[in-house]
Amino acid sequence: MEIRKAEIDDIPLLAKLGRQFHEDAGFSSVQSYDEKGFQESLMNIVDNPLAILITMWEEEAFVGALSGGLFPNFFAPSETIAQSGFLCVMPEFRKSQAAKDLTGIFEKWAENMGASIVTYFGNTQSLINKFRKRGFKKTDTVMSLRIKE
Question: What range(s) does the N-acetyltransferase domain occupy (predicted)?
Fold first, then answer.
């Protein structure tokens, strides 16, 4: 499998698959999806030196992607947190090591960028359990409510 930083040519495919990422993560129950807007967001990540968009491929088949960026720790601004925006692995590859490989690359990037903490959203119990086995601690629960249409 090939893992690499996303290229501009990858963006249209990722934007098309974005609806699946959005639904798999549970966002569709509250958040809208705009393919063109998502494509612009992905372009902003690719162009941002404090963010990364990683893709994984098996020959020509798309396996998965992870996006993330660097932020100051709200409670201790001298620390930097690397936070994943999304982690998506296509259903046919979910029993592989794809998620572990993508998160490993993200964590190496974060460390090289000076981050001292890394965070992920965990939308399935399986993913949460995998993170816990690696020493991650539950620090928050994301709650969403649409307050305006």
Answer: 1-149
Convert the pLDDT of each residue in 59-99 to its tens digit: 999 999 999 999 999 999 999 999 999 899 999 998 899 99
Could you tell me which of 99, 145, 104 has the C-alpha nearest to residue 122? 99
The CATH class for the domain spanning 2-133 reads: alpha beta
pTM to 2 decimal places: 0.89
Domain ranges across the chain: 2-133
Contacts of 77 (CB under 8 A, 6+ apart): none
Cβ burial 78-102 (10 Å sphere, 16+ → b, else e): eebbbbbbbbbbbeebbebebbebb
